[in-house]
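G., the chain you wanted modeled:
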Amino acid sequence: MAMNRSQFSALRQFPFCSYLVAAAALLACSAAGANSFVDAAPQRLAEFIRVDTVNPPGNETNGVRFFADIFDAAGIEYDSAESAPGRGNIWARLRGGRKPGLILLNHMDVVPADARHWSVPPYAGLIRDGFIWGRGAIDMKGTGIMQLQAFLHLAARVRAGARLNRDVIFLATADEETGGAQGAGWLVRHRSELFKRAGWLLNEGGSVRLTKQAPLYLVEVTQKVPVWLRLTATDRPGHGSSPTPTTAVTRILRAGARLADTRFPARVVPTVERMFAGLAPFEVDQRRRAAFADIAEASRDDRFLRRLAATNPGLHALLRNTCSLTRLEGSSKINVIPPQASLELDCRILPDQDEAAFIEKLRAIANDPNIVIEKLMSLKPAESPADSELLRAIERLVTDRDPGARVIPQVSTGFTDSHYFRTLGINSYGLGFFMVPPEDVRGVHGNDERLGVASLKTATSMLIELLERFAVR
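Predicted structure as tokens:
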């Protein structure tokens, strides 16, 4: 269901005039240089937050309209496609030389927000007290706007006569928050020609960690592998007034308790070992610094693992397979013993693990012939090189701006759409130039999500400079 520019104009039924005016004004002042694109980023993010792309149901075609209006005003060719009604994706390409192209990937969908628990309306896109407030400010409409402004700057440079050494593609997709099947996954399957000349990709997944010594730019190169499972127990149903020795509910609860009490063996994969070694010099506590420097040895110490789990669950999760019990379902009526009860698990395994063997291990832990395990979703492990032309360009940029800063390849406990492109052989990196204090990180998928105005401007400026270095001849 592809839509070109002329077809897309018929879909414009929403009041996006402000976007057109802003884009036209931005284009008019492009001669002033990158500052105009940087300065416009906060207001543009506020406008994007107001666009309804909550998933479920998604409605990312609203986001496609937002970007299409901006590209039209800037005179940039683009194309788009819906994987299903309302599930839009949009891309624009600046053509360059023969070097492998660079994709700027972002997803338009956001998770729901419960306004009762926010101090501001979550979809109003307010700019207040030095922050842009709203669902998606960090995850990941902020990154989308950072990429857009850098892309618009690059387009203005090309119109002014600059030549690119490679294609640069802006790509905004649907459905990442529920796995990406209607977005990046659909494009890889149905629009694979888009990526034939691409060799590099920048996406979410990285972060900036502020330490007393220096900021650390963590660039995601691989991820733990999600394995989502449903356990279903079956037993004789009956009336709640006459309990039997076993029921589907008691079976699933006993299996769940055994799984919850399981701590999978700690093991250190090479990428995680390099990451901890990179973090070690910046740890204030001497014992922790020594442990990070030799994490393979430290991970044999149960006391260290317990302390790490309590103080930094994210780092601890990189040292072992994990399963979180997230959903339980039993009877639909309080006085009915159901014939079935189910438990869903969000498991994340290390990239070198055998998925089938892991599931068999869970079957043994559940230890109940009346329980079947169904795989809901899993992904293939994939890793991008921790030393590459693009990573070196990022490192030079970071250290030129702050000689004390460091770039550290990171393993992520979560997953992003990068895995779809790594399987195509495209070197994909999670890059976060935003400096977000720990108290604001809790807003991601939580309450009062916000991004600092200064942080967005700095990040946009840095991405513009990275594109200048990496893509302009």
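The two ends are 36 Å apart (CA to CA).

Shout if anything looks off.
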